[in-house]
Write a structure and sequence with these properties.
12 helices; two-stranded antiparallel sheet; single chain; TIM Barrel
Amino acid sequence: MDDTVLNQVAVKLSEAPKGILAADESTNTITKRFSDINVESSFENRRKYRELLFKTKELNKFISGVILYDETIRQSTSENIPFGKFLNEIGIMPGIKVDTGAIPIFPSSPEKVTEGIDGLGERLKEYKNLGAVFTKWRAIIDIDENNKVPSDYAIDLNSFNLARYARIVQNHGLVPIVEPEVLMDGSHDINKCYEVTSKTQRSLFKHLNNQEVSLNGILLKPNMVISGKKCAKQASISEVASMTVKCLKENVPDEVPGIVFLSGGQSNELATEHLNEMNKSYTDLPWNLSFSYGRALQQPTLVSWQGNDQNIASSQEALYKRSKLNSSATNGEYSRDLE
């Protein structure tokens, strides 16, 4: 796949009125989500839940691609159609999470580095055969209470790995989504988030350029610039939109086709409102601004499902609604009244 084709895929994934459904929760993560609704996290229950998501009627009107987990891309519908093939047939591009998780940089370090470079090329060949056309790799950047974290070393190391991953993925003809997530778990204010997010994005693009990654054939999946969850003063919607766009303008080259935000623990409604405000107030940006949400799309579906087949229709209606609302936000046309 050449750069032109990579660019076409990246544009199609991020172009309004569509965005990406992140359904790539690890087995540990989905087990916690199932535990919240008292559902056993068995292989079959995980398969049935993912099938419920993918078979939502007319989901392809709002969703351009789905990020899958290693287990999920090997699973099939109840009619024995592999999920990768099924999604391609309904006009939704299958993607795959290819990192293998984050570990402490040093045994005693609070900071983490994401692994998965070893053997990546061989795994990509297999994932392509299973239908994948794009990939995702997530790096975690934390902010602590005493300003010692993140270190420059942690930012640089994760940025290097993101760039190395992107280079390998493009060599295999797939589009890499690079996800440097500055976590919103702390008590830091929006200015601190801006500082760390800006430094992280700057480091990332330095390494992407060093490794000669074709920037017009990637997607950036960043956090929004936002107050930490425990911060006493929560920034307004307009402030989040303004500072997020400012950060992107200063650090993200114009060649990047699209930016697909993560929700990062925001409420479903806030994640939609923030995206909407950016698209409504800033119409002259060089990139598509869209979404790549997991929990902010799936949470109402999980709550409705409860592991009960009788609830499948109502669960799918919940996913359809949230997907439609976020689709509206890609055009700056969302309002709370639509909820």
